[in-house]
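Journal club prep — side note

Before the paper discussion, L.F. wants everyone to see what a predicted structure for a comparable chain looks like in token form. Sequence:
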Amino acid sequence: MTAQSPSPSSGEALSIRVVREVAAHDGVDPMDLSPPLFRSVDPAALDALFEPTHAESARDGRVTFAYDGKQVTVDSDGEVRIDPEHDPQRQRSR
């Protein structure tokens, strides 16, 4: 499932967007998401990752992390992609 989220300039914290997208993917209320996001990634670090530079120019890039058996990829443009087939154990054994 690929979900297009608002751009980072929309004012919503990136970590909140990720929680909303994963909760929607799982069909649960964001408040009921378990385990909490901070067990997989530091929400403050995720929020800071794509903040504008001191010159107010946008940052470019992507971050991918494992969360509850899923691979979550967040692009600097705000796109959140969720791969439900990700198996962290399989990745380590290669």
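L.F.'s comment for the group: Residues 1-9 have pLDDT under 50 and may be disordered. Keep this in mind when we get to the figures.
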